[in-house]
Amino acid sequence: MEQFQGMIDYFGESPYIVRSSSILEDARGNAFSGKYESVFVVNRGSREQRMTELLKAVRTVYASVLDEEALRYRKRRGLLHSEERMALLIMRVSGSPQGRYYYPQAAGVGLSYNPFAWHPDIDPQAGVVRLVFGLGTRAVDRSDDDYTRLVALNAPSRRPEASFDDAREHCQRRMDCLDLKDGQFVSLDFPEVIQETPDFPLDLYLTYTAENYPWITFDRLLTETTVAPDLRRMLSILEEAYEHPVDVEFTLNFLSDGSYRIHLLQCRTFQIQRETGMLMPSEQVERQRLLTANGAVIGFSREQPLTRIIYIVTETYAALSDNDRYAVARLIGRLNRKHPEDDRGLMLIGPGRWGTHSPSLGIPVAFGEISRASVVCEMVEMHARLIPDVSLGTHFFNDIVEHDMLYLAYFPRNSGNYIDTAWFRAARNRLLELEPDAGRFAEIVRVIDCADVPGNIWLRADATAQESLVFRTE
Questions:
Q1: Residues 313 and 303 in one domain
Q2: Among residues 271, 293, 322, which one ends one of the domains?
């Protein structure tokens, strides 16, 4: 307790964060970040009040090792009986007071290898960052009602969005900060916060519409400063030191003389996401493959078993009217809602663009109608005369990134690509068991539960090699 008292005296009234540092989450080979709690403490009031808040935060973080979601995660990955010990990191929050609020000017997460290469100009080895205004919690934790700025560090001006309107629609609108007056962590509309800070260098972060409405783009920050090259160099140095790709958390603050400081908050190796299980040698995989899709693999590499595949038959879907295509999209949404939220084994395979506004180009689902999928595959074909664009580089891509989905594009004319359409059409269809009134779409929407198949169905995806494979084991 004396050490805690000394810490309170050392920090004064500076806000701090209590974070976990455990054997499992920090060990190489585990993709365990974000499973335990981190607690911000605004650190205002009397010495006794501040001590009470510190002890409350410490208890919360320690207790999170027994959180139900964390235990489920460990069980799925065969780590439930592995030794786990937790230490704590208590760190001053990087930032400064701006009126009644406290926050860094910018923050984010960075990867030394970019698994989201959405354009040929992008070098995956240059790294990528997800950048936010305010506290980095909006970059670390997915927000269902907001977006981050995704920056390829060798091409920082190359946005994923296809147009100005798409970019404006998918920009950050809210920011996280600490309310010094009320003593709590808050998420607010950013205009509400920045009106407290008339001297803030907003032009580096904002772009204005013709109606003079501000929106967060970071355009000048990325084009008129050396922030992007500095972040790229930092990630490269860390990757070299770790001898492995890394992911980091950082903040960015400008000083009164116009210089800036990048604060490295955390660094760990990041891994291919692997589920436990025995995989077959490559030659056996080749004999039992169901899908090979090479050439557009976007997202983190992974190896995992699949639990359910929803397969849309291209030819019959292409023959539908627009109204029926909308009906299929709503049906997929209902199937999505019935899939267990904590089951990350759902794969969607369908023709054209998932999430299109035009049913002639694909499947007009809203993103919420496929949100529980782990893998989305777009078949780049509809019929002989129409090859629609896929979702890569569109606003829909932002949602895929935010939800940590794996995106695959199957180009039928690419050498080496393959799909066993006969198998997908012959497999048992669970559609009518889940949706008894969907009989007219039974030959179009095929719901394949992998438990019905002898052995298991696995996905292998390598974003670096741009190769993906779905195959059976026996």
A1: yes
A2: 271
Q: Are 7 and 90 in contact (CB under 8 A)?
A: yes
| CB-count burial class (<10 Å; 0-12, 13-18, 19+) for 163 | exposed
Same domain? For 294 and 431 the reply is: yes
Dist. CA 52–CA 367, nearest whole Å: 43
In Å, the largest CA–CA distance within the chain is 76
Listed in sequence order, the DSSP H helices in 159-281 are 164-169, 190-194, 219-223, 227-242
Tokens describing residue 396: 């829909």
Mean pLDDT lowest for which of 223-227, 254-258, 268-272? 268-272
Domain that holds residue 323: 273-473
pTM: 0.74
Contacts of 342 (CB under 8 A, 6+ apart): 69, 72
E strand map for 81-158: 86-92, 96-98, 101-103, 106-111, 128-133, 149-152
Burial annotation 411-420 (CB, 10 A radius, 16+ → b, else e): beeeeebbbb
- Indicate whether 336 and 213 sit together in one domain: no
Residues 176, 180, 184, 188, CA torsion sign: negative
Q: Are residues 209 and 243 in the same domain?
A: yes
Among 109, 455, 88, smallest CA distance to 287 is for: 455
pLDDT exceeds cutoff 50 at 37: yes
Total count of domains within the chain = 3
Residue finishing a domain among 93, 112, 139: 93
- Rounded to whole angstroms, the Cα distance separating 141 from 176 reads 11
Rounded Cα distance, 120 and 183, in Å:
47
Nearest 5°: the CA angle 127, 129, 133 is 165
Distance CA 115, CA 122 (A): 10
Rg (CA), the chain: 24
280-332 per-position pLDDT tens digit? 445 556 568 999 988 778 888 888 999 999 999 999 999 999 999 999 999 99
User: Taking the CB of residue 185, how many other CB atoms lie within 10 A of it?
Assistant: 17
Of 130, 187, 177, nearest to 153 by C-alpha is 130
Distance CA 163, CA 400 (A): 18
